[in-house]
Amino acid sequence: MTYKITVLSGDGIGPEVMEQGLKVLESAAKKYNFDIEINHALIGAVAIDETGNPLPDETIEKCEAADAVLLGAVGHPKYDNDPHAKIRPEQGLLKIRKTLGLFANIRPVSTYEILYDKSPIKTERIKGVDFVVYRELTGGIYFGKKGTSPDGKSAFDTSEYHVDEIDRIARLAFDAALKRRKKLCLVDKANVIETSRLWRATVDKIAAEPQYAEVEYSSMFVDNAAMQLIQWPTQFDVILTENMFGDIITDEASVIPGSMGLLPSSSVGTSKALFEPIHGSYPQAAGKNTANPMATILSVAMMLEYLNQDAAGKAIRDAVNDALTASFVTEDISNENPKSTSDVGDWICEQINA
Ligand code: IPM
Ligand code: MG
Q: Does 98 reside within a domain?
């Protein structure tokens, strides 16, 4: 079996964490007897520098031809604070999501004992946190009509959702809940926003279907959810939400475990899937060999599980757990004797090869 993987390393620390992810992927392939064919392509600021386009057509073609896509990080400070920049690295990310039809972004959040002290939240509140956010990724205000008036004095963004867009991700989320602790919470703003009322009506109906009878379904306004995530995060199992709310609450959720450097994600659609760490390009650390590669390595595990290589995925997860337990970790997790990005990658590979 050969899997074709297109790799978009991107910007900042993207290339160095991706290098570790690919090493781990090669180790897992050797151990579990499958083959990997890697194809690199450009996205983000590096793509703008080389081609003038944050997502060249060649990249799209390579992603479409792949069994799965791995992405490092996208973003460069030279574009961040210039409101007049017409071309931005992030456009590459939004376009690849839309073009590949990646409508569901899945972000699991759990805590690790070694990190309890790193979390800004009290240990007793975060012990046992284990939830997953299903964020809609190709609709809503991100992709609606937008514009600025000719005099530059007003601007607008619109959020639009079709019932079919809600239905397809809701079913993925309910199916996930059935395989987990059987709880699903819809996060919306149905007391104010019309699209949220459509979400509520659509998801209420799905929740009432007999195949989801076992799922304990609830809904929560997003402002309350933002608070509950910090006050009582263990109450959540599957969270389902629209694009913009999902963007915000997943950043919030990422501080619960104590390091963003551990959180992987997958973005899935009808035929393609893309896997990426949820952290950004962290330009201050680029090229220093200090960034935590674990989120990328765990994204590789998620990718292998998507490709039905469950044993290989589990071996990677176990190796990451072992590294955490042995405190073989980068400086974001331990200031005493921190290891480099590549040392952590090598150590995890050795565990898998053993
Ligand atoms: C994310 C990021 C992106 C988003 C940005 C970089 C466009 O914040 O993946 O959460 O807003 O979706
Ligand atoms: Mg975000």
A: yes
The whole domain housing 312 covers 1-110+260-354
pTM of the predicted protein model:
0.94
Measured by CA distance, the residue closest to atom 8 of ligand 1 is 247
Q: Which of 247, 278, 299 to mutate for ligand 1's pocket (most ligand atoms within 8 Å of CB)?
A: 247
pLDDT tens-digit map of 108-141: 999 998 899 999 999 999 999 999 999 999 999 9
Summarised one tens digit per residue, pLDDT across range 15-50 is 999 999 999 999 999 999 999 999 999 999 999 999
Q: Which protein residue's CA is at the shortest distance from atom 12 of ligand 1? A: 247
- For residue 266, the domain's CATH number is 3.40.718.10
- CA geometry: angle 121, 259, 105, nearest 5 deg: 100
Tell me: do 200 and 270 sit in the same domain.
no
How close is the Cα of 210 to the center of ligand 2, in Å? 34
Helix (H) or strand (E) holding 133: strand 130-136
**Does residue 247 carry a catalytic annotation?**
yes
| Amino acid found at 277 | P
Q: Which ligand is nearest to the CA of 248?
A: 2
Best mutation site among 71, 74, 94, 299 for ligand 1, i.e. most ligand atoms within 8 A of its Cβ? 94
Q: Residue 73 falls within a domain, yes or no?
A: yes
322 CA distance to ligand 1 middle (Å): 30
Burial class (CB in 10 A: 0-12, 13-18, 19+), 14: buried
Same-domain check for residues 26 and 142: no
- 3-state secondary structure (DSSP) of residue 14: helix
Q: Are 49 and 56 in contact (CB under 8 A)?
A: no
Q: Between 294-306 and 310-325, two packed helices, what is the crossing angle to 10 degrees?
A: 160
Residue 295 is encoded by which pair of tokens? 């989120």
Is 83 strand, coil or helix?
coil
Which ligand 1 atom lies nearest to the CA of residue 250?
Answer: 10
